[in-house]
Amino acid sequence: MHQIKRYLPILFWAKTYNRQTATSDLVAALIVTIMLIPQSLAYALLAGLPAEMGLYASILPLVAYAIFGTSRALSVGPVAVVSLMTAAAIANLGLSDPVEIAMAAVTLAFISGLILLAMGFFRLGFLANFLSHPVIAGFITASGILIAASQLKHIFGVQMHGHTLPQVLGDLVAHIGQTNLITVAIGIFAVSVLFWVRKGLKPLLLSFGLTPRNADILAKAGPVAVIVVTTLITWLFNLGEHGVKIVGQVPTGLPPLTLPNFNPGLWNQLFVSALLISIIGFVESVSVAQTLAAKKRQRIEPDQELIGLGASNVAAAVSGGYPVTGGFSRSVVNYDAGAETPAAGAFTAVGIAVATLFMTPLLHFLPKATLAATIIVAVLSLVDFSILKKAWGYSKVDFAAVAATIVLTLAFGVEVGVSAGVILSIALHLYKTSRPHVAEVGLVPDTQHFRNILRHDVETHPHLVTLRVDESLYFANARFLEDYVLNRVTCDQPIEHVILMFPAVNEVDMSALETLEELNRRLTDMGIALHLSEVKGPVMDRLKRSHLLTDLSGQVFLSQYEAWQWLKVPTPERTEQESIATDQ
Amino acid sequence: MHQIKRYLPILFWAKTYNRQTATSDLVAALIVTIMLIPQSLAYALLAGLPAEMGLYASILPLVAYAIFGTSRALSVGPVAVVSLMTAAAIANLGLSDPVEIAMAAVTLAFISGLILLAMGFFRLGFLANFLSHPVIAGFITASGILIAASQLKHIFGVQMHGHTLPQVLGDLVAHIGQTNLITVAIGIFAVSVLFWVRKGLKPLLLSFGLTPRNADILAKAGPVAVIVVTTLITWLFNLGEHGVKIVGQVPTGLPPLTLPNFNPGLWNQLFVSALLISIIGFVESVSVAQTLAAKKRQRIEPDQELIGLGASNVAAAVSGGYPVTGGFSRSVVNYDAGAETPAAGAFTAVGIAVATLFMTPLLHFLPKATLAATIIVAVLSLVDFSILKKAWGYSKVDFAAVAATIVLTLAFGVEVGVSAGVILSIALHLYKTSRPHVAEVGLVPDTQHFRNILRHDVETHPHLVTLRVDESLYFANARFLEDYVLNRVTCDQPIEHVILMFPAVNEVDMSALETLEELNRRLTDMGIALHLSEVKGPVMDRLKRSHLLTDLSGQVFLSQYEAWQWLKVPTPERTEQESIATDQ
Fold first, then answer.
1. B58: closest CA among B45, B70, B75?
2. B210-235 pLDDT per residue, tens
3. What is the distance between the alpha carbons of residues A122 and A99, in angstroms, rounded to a whole number?
4. How far does the CA of residue B446 sit from the closest CA of chain A (Å)?
5. How is chain A split into domains, by residue range?
6. Would the N or C end of chain A have less CB density within 10 A of its end CB?
C-alpha cells in the first residue's frame, strides 16, 4: 500500500483538500488558462505542428501530472525549448505528409514518456546532473535565439525550413523578396504592444487605481487583447486574402484518442531525440519546481517528478498532443496567482478543454504573425549572456563549456549543441582531475599544522619529504602522482622518507592502488621508505583489503604530526640517540 | 639547441658511449635477434600479413627508436596484441587482394605513427591514463585468449576468418573436418617442445654443467631449434605436398622503400583503429619501459616515448612494415642480456637485416603450424585471470570494469572491448563521484577533532548541524549535496546553523558554486544560517571571485573548532550571556 502511495502523491494532498484551497486553485487555474491558450497554439506552431495539437497537449497531460506530480505549483504543458527540440527531431525524419508529422510528434511524446517513467522507476534522476549549469544556461540562451530567429518567417510571411542559425538567416535572406508587408505590419505591431504590455501596462493600470493584484491579472491577459485585436482586424479587412497567413480551420471538440506509431524503425530514429528532450525537459521542470517548493518550505521528489512528467507525456501521446514539460514562466504565474495544490493544473485542463470545445472557431482568423510575436517576446527573456561573463570571471574551464555549447547549438542545432555540451563538461572535468594538486608541506613552527612550503615559512628536514595530495586517486591521475613523486626524489638530497598525506583523498581505486604498490616497490629499490598519513576511514577500510599496507616499506600514521615526530630524526642520529637513551 | 636535444635523447647517451657499453649492447642484440626472427614472422602471420613484413617491421623501427626513444632496454618491433589489433583493423576493410591488405597495414602504421608523434609534441601522454589498470589487464588477458584461439587454424590446418571468440570457435567446428593430421602432429610437437623449453631446458643445461648465463642464453635459442627441426622434417619428407601449410617464398633483400596510401577514405576508415592501436601500444610499451628503468634508478620521459614510438611506426610504414611497439617479453630479455643503451636495438636491427639478406631462403619450408605454436606459447603467458579475483576483493566497481572488458573483448573483438572498457571506467568513476560521501560530525570530547556521529561518540548541539563533505563538488554531485542538506534540515529540530566542512573539497566548479548560492538562499528563507569551515586555499581563492562569500548568511571559519566555539551557544542564550557579560 505504502508502495502504491509513493507513486501517487495525490493521495497525500487530496485528503486535506478543502473549499479554501479549491478557491485559490481555481483563481490560479483561470489566470494560467488565459495565458496558456495563446501559448499552446504558438508553441505548436513553433514545433511545426497544427495549432490544435498545442491545445491537446494542454489537457490530459495536466491531469496526469496532478495525479503523479509532487510539485504544487508546476504548470505542465507545451514549452518553448521542448517545442523547438520537437521540431528538430521531426525535421531529422524528413517527412512531408502532415499526418505522418503529427503521428511522429505523438510517438516522440510516447517514447519520451516511457524514458521518463523508466528513469523514475529506476531512480535515475541523478543522470540529469551530468548537464552542468553552464551547459544548461548556454543551451537555453542559444535556444532562445534560435527560436526567435525561427519565428521571423511568420513575421515576414516567408518560407523557412532551417534548424540552425546559419540556415535560418540564410533562408530569410534568400526569401526576403517574398516579404508580405501587411504581415510585417501585424508582426511589428504585436511585438511592440507585447513588449509594452510586459513593462508599461501594469503601472498604467495601477495609475488608474486598480489594486496591484487585479492590475497584475489584467496585465497577464494583455497578450489575449493583442490576439483579439489582430484577429478582428484580419477578419474585418479579410487580410487572409491578401497573403496574411492565418491559423485557419481548427477542429472543434475534445482531443481524439490516439495511439503512437509502433514502427521500430521510427522508434530507432526518434530515440536519441526523445532521450535529449526527456532530460532537458526534466532539468528545466525540476529546477523551477524546486525553486517554487523551497519558497514554501516544501520538498519535491525528483525521482517522482520523473514519473509525473513521464505520465504527462504518455497522456499527451494518447490524446493527440506532443512532448510537454513544466514551463518556467507559466509555473511562476501559477504560483503567484496562489495555486496551492496540483489540482490547479487539473482545473486549467478543464479550462483548456472548454476552449477547445467552444472557442476554436474564433481562432480561424488569428494571424500566425501574432503567435510568432508572442513566442519572440516570451523567449527573448530566456536569452541571457551574463552567464558568459560570470563563467569567465570564475573559471576558464566553465567558460569554455558555456561558449562551446552556445556556439555549437546556434551553428549545428539543439541536439548537437546539448550533446556536445555534456561530453565537453565531462571531458573538462576529467582533464582537471587528471592533474591533481600536490603540495609539499612542512611544519608551521610551534603548531601541529602542516602547510605548503611555497606559501608559508615552515620547518622541513632534508631527509624527509611530505606531499599532501589534494585529489581522490583514480585511474586518470594515479600515474601523474607516481611521476610526481619519482621526479621529486630523484635528486642529490639524502631522502630517507616520503610521506603521502591523504586528508583530501576520498577514493583510491584499483588503478591508483596498483600505482601506490608500484611506487612503494620503486622507492624501496631506491632505499626510500614510503609512509601514509591522515588516511580517511573509508579509504583505509578499502586499503585494508589489499596487500599495500602489508608490503608498505614505511608506516601509516593517524596524524601527520605523529609521522613528523617519529621520522624527523635521520636514521644514524636516531640510533645514536636510542643508544644514549639506553645508556641512561 | 636545447629544444632539439629534448627531442633527440641519443645526444645524451651517445657522448658517453664506449667499448664496454658497446660489448654488452652487442651481446644483448645477438640474443634478442635470435628471439625476434621467429617472433617477427609469427606475428606477421597473426596480423594476416606476409611473413617478410614482420622482418621489415623489425629493422628501421628499431633504428628510429634508438634515436628518439628514452628507454635503454625497450625492444621495439612487432608484438602480439598490436598484431591482433592490426588484423582486426584490416578485417574491417573487407579487402581480399593481398597487395591492398599489405598497403592497408603500411598505412595503418603511418597513421598510428602520426598520432603518436602529435600526442608527443602536444604532451598528451596523460590521455593513456584514461585506460584504467583493470581495463588494461582484462583487455590483455582477453586478447591472449583470442590470439591463441585464432592460431588454432594453423595447428589444424583449416580455414578461419573470425575475429571474435564465437566466430573463431564456430569456424573451427565448421571446418574441423578438413583437419590435416600431419599439420596437427607438427603443431602439437612444437607446442609441447616449446612449453618444455620454457620450463625444463634451463635446468637440464645446468645439470650438464653450463654456467647459468650460458644456460639462459641457450634456453632462449630453444624456439629456434624447434623451427629448424620442423623445417627440416617438412623439407625432407616434402610435407608441403601433403597439405602442410608452409611459409613459402620469402623475398630476399633489404626492406623496400614504401609510401602509405593517402586515400582520404582509407584514412577515415583506419583512423579509430590507428588511435586505439597507438594508445594500447603506448600503454604496453611505457609500462615495461618504466619498470625496467626503475630497476636502474633511471627515468623515462613518457611524452618523449610517444615521439620515439611515433618515429618507429613512421619508419615501419616507409619500409614495408606494420604497426610496432615495445614488446614486454623481448624487452625483459634485452634487459637481462645486459643492454645498456638504445644502441642494442640498433644492433638488433642489423642482425635482422642480415637475416633478411641471407636467411629467407631457409624459411621456405618453415611450417605455419610451428609459428602458430610459438605464438600460442608466447601469448598464454599474457592470460591472467587473477586480476578478476583481486578486483572482486578490492572493489566491485573495478571488478565490473575488468569483467565487462574481458567479456566484450572476447565476444565482440579487441576494438569494441577496449573502447567499452574506457567508456565504462569513466562512467563508473562519474557515478561514484556523483554520490559523494557526506558525514555529519560532532566534537570528540576534550579534543579539537570532529568525527562522524555514526562512528564515534561525539558532542553535538540540536541547533547546530555540521556536515563534512568528502568529495570535490562539481556538476555531477552538486545537486546531490543540495538535496542532502535540505532533507537533513527539514525536520522539527530547532536548527539555527548549518556548517559545511570542506577539508576534502579540492574543487568547486561553477555548477557547484551556483548550487551553494541556491542552498544559501533556501536556508536563509528557512531562517537557517549557512557557514563554511576549513576551506582549502585554492578553493577559497576561487570562491573569492564569486558572490557566494558576500551573500553567505553565515561566516567562513578557518577551523571547524573555531566555528564550533562561536556557534555552539543558541542565539537567545548567547544574547543573554552577552548582556551578562556587559553587566560585569
1. B75
2. 888 778 777 777 788 888 999 999 99
3. 35
4. 17
5. 21-428, 438-574
6. C
